[in-house]
Amino acid sequence: MKIVIVGGSFGGLTTAFDLRRLLNDREHEITVISKERRFIFIPSLPWVAMGQKSLSDISFDLDKPLANKKIKFVEASVQRIDPEQRTVVTEAEVYDYDYLVIATGHRSANEAVPGLGPFDGPGHSLMSPPEAEEARDAWKAFMENPGPVVVGCAPGASCIGPAYEFVFEIHHMLKLRKIRHKVPIVFVTPEPFLGHFGVGGFGKARQFFEGEFEQRDIRYCTSAEVLEITDSFVSIADERIFDSRYSLIIPSLAGIKAVADSPNLSNPKGFIPVDEHYRHNDFSNIYAVGVAVALPPVEETPVPVNFPKTGHMTEQMAKIAARNIAADIRGGEKSADHLIAECIMDMGDQAAHMVANPIRPPRNVSKMSKGRRWLWAKKFFANYYLWKVRHGATRSPKWVW
Residue 261 domain-assigned? Predict the structure, then answer.
């Protein structure tokens, strides 16, 4: 049996390692195809942008860990997928499969906001390693001549958390440099209220973030539709304009081109429709996990806010998909479970721990707490996660995000 997994990040690696544990290597060949040769711990990109970490600190090469588990690794960019012929086409070769797992992540739709670069406009982002490094270099230059800052998210964004982290981190850095008084900060978000996060909010998140922003003199605008970013201002839909010398805006996301261009595979945005088992609605031998999956928003909002997909949630999807592929092959019942969200948000000198179980309301658990211990936990977990994935230890004890 040939199983091909497209993507070498959270979803791809978790699926591959779990499948290898469930299926013996003599009868079942597992291949991971990834355009990146290195796994990068994406949640640490705000630290890269702040200059606290380098990409080498938060990454490792994929070939050896996969080879150790008798999983074939192919470094290649997928051009298209043919679900009828059961093939994955790269720039160099065609791979046939019996089962396919799509864990390709996203494409940042930066073009939706004029000026949201970073490489073809003055706006900065955090949604990929090159963007985080560019944001870091621009921040260093900004610190030589500081001025107003705008941080936030574009309409339709789903990855809201990094914007909050970044605004807390820059406040802390400016305060340490004793130049916070020189830098007015505005946070703009499509969320109808702070702490919505695309999940309708949870617990006392709204009151928590409003209080934290007000304590730090961070001005905020909710239901904000960012229209344009220039090198001197950010404009939003209600004709408000905010001066800005440094603007970091998280874009909305779309499916990658190879998936979007493949026939009958995705919805109009390039995301893949799946059932509760993370199996494609039309092709029973195709599964999808992570950001590539089409998940509807929890509610309509005045300005669109899409459903989030975190690394923690991606792992949960991958484990469910791996169990179900093994059940398809060996026989047995398929499994399904609701997703939970558990994460730690860096706030500069401390961190917030947040839990929403399940992620969609109504919930059994909604809680959050703040403290320096959570910042220590976040730093420890980043290193621990790199270690455990490098060793294929996806069955290791549960740790928070």
Answer: yes
Q: Is the peptide bond before 362 cis (omega within 30 degrees of 0)?
A: yes
C-alpha to C-alpha distance for 169 and 47, rounded to whole angstroms: 9
Q: Where among 237, 252, 267 does a domain terminate?
A: 252
Q: How far apart are CA 40 and CA 8, in angstroms?
A: 9
This prediction has a pTM of: 0.95
What's the farthest any 2 CA atoms get from each other in the chain? 65
Residue 48 makes CB contacts below 8 A (sequence gap 6+) with 54, 55, 58, 129, 132, 133, 136
Residues in the chain: 401
φ/ψ of residue 284, rounded to 5: -70, -15
Which residue range(s) make up the domain with 318?
2-106+255-336
Q: C-alpha angle with apex 255: 250 to 259, nearest 5 degrees?
A: 160
Amino acid at 137: D
| Tens-place pLDDT, residues 304-338 | 999 999 999 999 999 999 999 999 999 999 999 99
> Which residues are marked as active site?
159, 343
CATH number at residue 305: 3.50.50.100
